[in-house]
Amino acid sequence: MLVNSSPSINTRRTLQIQDVGMVFPTKRGPFVALRDINLEVQRGEFVTLIGHSGCGKSTLLNLVAGLTTPSSGIMLLQERELTGPGPDRGVVFQNHSLLPWLSCLDNVLLAVERVFSEKEGKAQLRERALAALDLVGMSHAVAKRPHEISGGMKQRVGIARALAMEPKMLLMDEPFGALDALTRARLQDELMKIVATTGATVMMVTHDVDEAVLLSDRIVMMTNGPAATIGEVLRVDLPRPRVRVALAENRDYVQYRKEVIDFLYTRHSHVEKAA
Q1: Which of 25, 118, 204, 231 has its CA 20 to 30 A from that of 127?
Q2: Reading across the β-sheet that carries 72-77, which strands appear in turn?
């Protein structure tokens, strides 16, 4: 659903980041947020970015989304240079960003119309939006407005809106960070099912070690900022589908979790600056 193949040297490669750096101008002079970022994401792969606050995870995701432009380097999506935002990348933020005056259906339909209105009629567009809501288990709430549903439901609609555009890549910035633990766990499980169904290519920012290990094919661990970069990339070779209860005592899961914790809290522990 989410992948459009195009002729290239590597037909499985969705995203390529080469020597990317990000420098922000400040009153005190240039602030180097990111340096020497090199990463490839393969089609259908689930990659998480993890690191301490201020390490540039969201900055890197925003660069891939086209919301900001890198100061150096190049980024390619299916061999085409990224020069700004586009419907080929669906973005889900921690804040669902739903329009409060529109129903759940109309929020999704707005995104669908942006991408497909020139090729499809109203009935087809509506069918696409309804299918996306059904995929995330929200078909019962198509007529409800955001204030009438829970936080977890809002995030489901946000995911449906992103998926409905059939992007080449789904970008998620701590999408479950503001939810309670039980709702977060439920949505993590649902996201794994959605990714398995759609074959989505996903890049997600998280602070949660367990979330990263549970969801990921690879975990990209960032060094502390300023001038943050990729410290290590951990491949998570756990079979899918993954069941969190079974993984709790899985030796490989425990070892992957230990490796991430060791990177974050032993080798790259975050020291708060004095005020």
Answers
A1: 204
A2: 29-42, 13-26, 72-77, 80-81
Write the DSSP assignment of 56-117 as a string of letters. SHHHHHHHHHTSS--SEEEEEETTEE--S--TTEEEEESS----TTS-HHHHHHHHHHHHHT
150 neighbors 157 (Cβ within 8 angstroms): no
- DSSP annotation of 136 reads T
Cα dihedral value 105, 196, 252, 265, nearest 10 = -40
Alpha-carbon dihedral angle through residues 186, 188, 194, 195, given to the nearest 10 degrees: -160
Q: Is 9 helix (H, G, I), strand (E, B) or coil?
A: coil
Cα 160 to Cα 125, 139, 157: the distances in Å are 14, 11, 5
Structure tokens, 84: 């700004």
Burial of 83 (0-12, 13-18, 19+ CB in 10 A): exposed
Domains and CATH numbers, the chain: 13-88+167-267 (3.40.50.300), 98-166 (no CATH)
CB 180 within 8 A of CB 122: no
Please write the tens of the pLDDT for every residue from 228-240: 999 999 999 999 9
Total count of residues recorded for the chain: 275
pTM, whole model, 2 decimals? 0.90
Q: What is the pLDDT of residue 234?
A: 98
Q: Rounded distance, CA 2 to CA 165, Å?
A: 8
